[in-house]
Protein 1
Amino acid sequence: MAFSRITGLGFYVPDNVITNDDLTQWMETSDEWIRERTGIQERRYFEYGKDTNYSMAAAASRQALDRAGLTPNDIDVIVYATITPDYFFPGSAFLMQRELGMDGKPVIDIREQCSGFVYALSIADQFIKSGMYKTALVVGSEIQSSWIDKSTAGRNTAVIFGDGAGAAVVSATNDPQHCILSTHLHADGRFAEELYVKDPGSSREGRPVSQEVIDGGGHNVYMNGNAVFKHAIVRFGEVIQEALEANGYTAGDIDLLVPHQANLRISDYVRQQLGLAESQVINNLQRFGNTTAASIPIALTEAWETGKIQEGDLICLAAFGSGFTWASALIRW
Ligand code: UT7
């Protein structure tokens, strides 16, 4: 029986730092409001002409590959999560594959929003466990800054999001002591419209992109923040407990929790629910905001780079987002 383990991590964020004060040039908001409600202090915005969704993913992937001691040609499959692709189709995985010179290797583009990376990791884990592939490149990459409505009308979502990419190389191993122990995926489409971008959608009268559609504002992110918040604090706890129970552990066994970086208040709530110390939970949204599918691989990479992950540690990844989706992965490092 094969298992899979993460053998290399990398991330890329654009150089362009946007502070909370910078946002006040576009919308009525304040550093105080954003810090108090979310914990975010700054985020990165991509630089047009320099960064693309796939170039950021490629940069993160190159770093992950280097650290795994591999080259792009060692990869059997790419699983790429994003809700902000470069093109409507084909997906950004194709563009990153071309960028890395991996022509002919299969690519899988998925969405699954803020849970995208954990879903992608789970797909890679199943491919490896089944024996179909030996090495996978799992990516989360987002450019939110070109999509969000930076006027006051869009401020409840615009202040949250940032741009960036993270990547993990996932390799086959025979060692059940150092591997991805399990992944747990959930979705509930009854809440699809609580956090969504409606347009351009295909199921409409007339062309998906027209002045009428643009004037309707359906291309902007809509979020019922309160509903998202309330579901998030329940689902995070549930899906972490599910992962622990599936492997015979309790919260006290967790060495490090790497949650999706949505809101510091959500993260603190979950931490307290589990009885974890502040040092056991990775929070970097203060510097990067919510980078959707990229947030977990960026946070995981930073945790690894700063020595917060040691061999043998029990690491839990957990996510919640639009869909609604929620997911976890338990890893014995
Ligand atoms: O990654 C996917 C998962 N996403 C999440 O988990 C996000 C979950 N939701 C949240 O984190 C919170 O809902 C937010 C931080 C996004 C918003 O906080 P909130 O307390 O739910 O704010 P609200 O939207 O209910 O708005 C409260 C007030 C409103 O003013 P009134 O009507 O009370 O006068 C808003 O107009 O705050 C106002 N407001 C702002 N004021 C200054 C909303 N956004 C802003 C802003 N700056 N950026």
Protein 2
Amino acid sequence: MRTQVAIIGAGPSGLLLGQLLIRDGISNVILERRSAAYVLGRVRAGIIETGTAALLDEAGAGARMHREGLIHDGIEISFGGEHHRMDFRRLVGKSVIVYGQSEITRDLMERRAACGAETLYEVEDVALHDVAGAQPKVRFRQDGVAREIDCEFIAGCDGSHGVSRQSIPAAVLRSYERIYPFGWLGVLVERPPVSPELIYAHHERGFALCSMRSPTRSRLYVQCRLEDQVSDWPDERFYEELRLRLAPGAAARVHPGPSLEKSITPLRGCVAEPMRYGSLMLAGDAAHVVPPTGAKGLNLAASDVHYLWQAFAGYFRNGSRAGLEAYSERALRRVWKAERFSWWMTNTLHRFPESSGFDRMAQRAELEYLASSTAAQTALAENYVGLPL
Ligand code: APR
Ligand code: PHB
């Protein structure tokens, strides 16, 4: 089997890249180790920056997002029993779209199927070969049969536990990591949102977030201990804790319902550099992870894909290698800005178990500064809606 770009992973990065390449007549095959149903079943944040929405439009997969997505012009930051609105429209003239990540994945999968492009699901033992040179190969097993793809490039879009990053020699790869001493317990529930906009709440007892998937479905989170198990958190305990961490008005609008999904996510940030090694290019979670506090994961994946698509288009259209050579540096510059923002949001809003009295007073001052300063709010807003590509 031959293709121009072999894409590893059918998450948002791989599917979006595949669609943009098809648009430009660049052939590609996607290899995914799970089934399509499994990929669609993962529950993840769904805050879409304008730049990400534009890229989905370019890929021909934005129509349902524009129809069903909710446009949000701001968020609420809650602390000390009060809410403070960050008015994105007024501050930076932009907004975000609330639309679930699995819906985006579904829209991209449908577009791909409509184009007749190849995605091989449930493949095993994917291994990358000769990535340092110009004729890389991907070997894998499908239904127990060994197969091979010859290609010009491999796009490693296989998330944080994939094989692509591991195919870069250890002597070349630099990794940076920040592990936070807590997790988020998330609940999906068929109940209307607590508030029309997202509430990010800082409280002595820990952080809480009221998000949503639609006008009838909420996604709610509380900060929990790393050692907690989902079984430690029956629904009643979850709702009680959530109410305690919100300002009274919002707490009164929490309408408990049976959880459709409940899971714990540890929080961490990490970046692997470089994002290119020979013919292998990493994109999305394969190269970096952000804590969910700023909802940057999907948007960073999209910005990588944007730079990578431009690099491939330049090469296959004009034979120019300039975009390929610059890819890692261009992508990483934006990655680190989003890492910084997610780290700042996480530090500002959570309760750190080891924090001193000094740390807590400084954190409180940071929040009060944010609540009172247009400059501080503008900095939050321009990062939240997405820095330019
Ligand atoms: N072979 C083939 N496929 C693999 C392999 C492998 N060895 N390892 C992992 N995969 C697949 C996973 O099953 C998954 O479907 O790669 C895909 C990677 O998808 P994601 O983890 O969703 O990563 P990405 O597409 O970069 O999307 C980034 O997703 O994790 C969130 O917060 C993150 O929103 C961000 C977005
Ligand atoms: C979510 O809706 O799941 C969500 C929203 C915003 C975040 C994180 C998660 O910052």
